[in-house]
C-alpha cells in the first residue's frame, strides 16, 4: 500500500518481478498437471555413422499441450530445471526411453540401436541419481549397454571427484556417457580427461560455422582431435547440408546427427524410417 511506503520502507511490490514469479508458478503447476495427464511424449532423432548406418537415436521430449499444441523443450526445460519439476520429468523420460529399448530388443531392425537420453545437471547432481538410473534399468529390464546419458559441460563446474564417481558407478554396469553441445559451455580441459566419457558431441554452431566463418574449420578440427586424443568417438550435431556432411566426414568425425539425415520423429515414424 502506498500509505505504508514511508521513507525507510523498501518497495516490495515490483510488478515485473511479480509477473515473472506468477508466470513461473503457473508453468510449474502446468508441468505438474501435464505429467499427471501424460501430455509429454518422446521423439527420436536418428544418429548415423558417416556412411549413413543408423547407430542409435537421441530421445527428445515434447509437450503436447491441450491448448498450445506441441511445445519445444527449449521452452519448458529451463523452467522445469528452475522449479525442480525436471526431477519427475527427467525420471519419466528415462523410464520411457528404457521401455522403448525393451520394445526394440529382439527385432533385427532395432535390436542394436542405442538410445541417448539428455540429463539435466539438476538431475545428475542429486545424491540418488545413480540409484534412480539403476532402478529404472532394473524395473524395465532394459540393457544398460544400450543406454547413453548426455551431459553438458556445466558438470565440470561442480565437484569433479563426485562427478567421476557417479559416472564410474554407472559405467560399471554398462551405461555410457556423451558430452553434449561441446564447446558452448565452460570447458575445463584439465578435468575433461578425467571423466569416463565415450562420446563428444560437437555443438551445431561449430558445424554451421565451419563452412562460413574464418576459423570455423580449424575449430572443428581441434575439437575432433581433442575427442580422439581422449579416446572418445566424435559426433557432429546439426548437420543440415551435404557440404557439411562432406566436411565433417573429411575431418574424421565418427557419427553425425541432423536434419539432413532426419528430424526427430515420433516412434511410429521412426520405425518406418528404419525400415526404409
Ligand atoms: P540437444 O540435446 O542438443 O538436442 C539437439 C537439438 O537440436 C534438438 O532440439 C534437435 O531437434 C535439434 N536439431 C537436431 N538436428 C538439427 C539440425 O540439423 N538443425 C537444427 N536447427 N536443429 C537440429 P530440441 O528437440 O528442441 O531440444 C532442445 C534441447 O532441449 C536439447 O538440446 C536438450 O538440451 C533439451 N532437451 C530435450 N529433451 C530433453 C530431456 O528429455 N531432458 C533434458 N534435460 N533436456 C532435454
Ligand atoms: Mg542432447
Ligand atoms: Mg546437443
Ligand atoms: Mg544443442
UniProtKB/TrEMBL annotation:
Residue ranges annotated for the EAL domain, each copy included: 24-276
Name of the protein this chain belongs to: EAL domain-containing protein
Native organism taxonomy: Bacteria, Pseudomonadati, Pseudomonadota, Betaproteobacteria, Burkholderiales
Residues of the full protein shown: 282 to 557 of 557
Amino acid at each position: 500500500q502506498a500509505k505504508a511506503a514511508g521513507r525507510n520502507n523498501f518497495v516490495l511490490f515490483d510488478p515485473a518481478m511479480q509477473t515473472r514469479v506468477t508466470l513461473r508458478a503457473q508453468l510449474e503447476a502446468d508441468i505438474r498437471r501435464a505429467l499427471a495427464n501424460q501430455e509429454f511424449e518422446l521423439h527420436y532423432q536418428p544418429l548415423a555413422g558417416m556412411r549413413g548406418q543408423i547407430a542409435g537415436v537421441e530421445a527428445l521430449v515434447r509437450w503436447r499441450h491441450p491448448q498450445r499444441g506441441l511445445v519445444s523443450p527449449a521452452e519448458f526445460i529451463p523452467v522445469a530445471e528452475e522449479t525442480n519439476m525436471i526431477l519427475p520429468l527427467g525420471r519419466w523420460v528415462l523410464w520411457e526411453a528404457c521401455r522403448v529399448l525393451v520394445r526394440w530388443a529382439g527385432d533385427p531392425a532395432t535390436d542394436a540401436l542405442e538410445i541417448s537420453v539428455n540429463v539435466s545437471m539438476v538431475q545428475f547432481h542429486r545424491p540418488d541419481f545413480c540409484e534412480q538410473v539403476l532402478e529404472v534399468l532394473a524395473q524395465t529390464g532394459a540393457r544398460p549397454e544400450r543406454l547413453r546419458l548426455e551431459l553438458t559441460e556445466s558438470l565440470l563446474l561442480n565437484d569433479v571427484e563426485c562427478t567421476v564417481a557417479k559416472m564410474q558407478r554407472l559405467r560399471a554396469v554398462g551405461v555410457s556417457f556423451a558430452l553434449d553441445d561441446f564447446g558452448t559451455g565452460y570447458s575445463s580441459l584439465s578435468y575433461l580427461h578425467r571423466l569416463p566419457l565415450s562420446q563428444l558431441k560437437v555443438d551445431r554452431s561449430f558445424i554451421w560455422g565451419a563452412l562460413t566463418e574464418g576459423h570455423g574449420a580449424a575449430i572443428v578440427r581441434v575439437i575432433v582431435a581433442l575427442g580422439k586424443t581422449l579416446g572418445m568417438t566424435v559426433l557432429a550435431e546439426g548437420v543440415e547440408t551435404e557440404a557439411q556432411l562432406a566436411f565433417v566426414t573429411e575431418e574424421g568425425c565418427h557419427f553425425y546427427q541432423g536434419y539432413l539425415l532426419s528430424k526427430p520423429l515420433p516412434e511410429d515414424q521412426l520405425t518406418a524410417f528404419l525400415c526404409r
